[in-house]
Amino acid sequence: MGAATLGERIANLAGGRCELVHAVRDAWPPLVATNPDPQVAEMQLLQQAVAREQVKQVLKGTVSDRVLESLKVRFGPAAVVLRQVVEESRPGLLVLGGKHHTALERWLGGSTSLHVVRTSEVPVLITAREPATPRRVLVAADLSKAAGPTVRLAERFARLVGAQLRVLTVFEPLPDVPGVPPLDPTEYYALAQESLEQDIWPLVTEIGVERLVRHGTVVDTLLREATDWQADVLVVG
Known about the structure:
The chain contains ten helices and eight strands.
């Protein structure tokens, strides 16, 4: 429900179109393999119709009738169905509903969402709680080439919804390599800071954006900073 509501809200702000997609498990292939029956196709259509009506009833009143009528119900794993729809429709943004268990799942949504994030060719937004209009956007910018498009996307999104933007870079501890003498971290962090100031921070074009550097493991640090700052959106590349 939250993903649909937020998706339509963002589409309206951007002057775009919001379409709904729902994936359902196809229980009929094993039956077809053992006993082909023309009625199976009719049962599949019935299953789709029932699923479509159930989704519409759940979302009724939370999104517009126009968006409800756009609902596509397809058979298959959610990640596969979403990839197919993305290839067909080429949306500017894919909005998914996340699960609510651990801290990691609250921000990254679970196995389906993680799989979609890793394989999607378009930006993915995962809702971690009942959505309000985003007011704080935290973007993770590392020292790789991915930082450029990640920061630009975060700036566009923050500008679109009128949100405050904060850029966070995490320097991880040097790894302990067996048989290799430990390195002095002072020089390593100094070089990383120099690269950050020369190559990454100039990518931020918006005025008044706060830039932060933290030390620690990436996932734990991102989750802690997002929680402490009460970020509504976490952008990662």
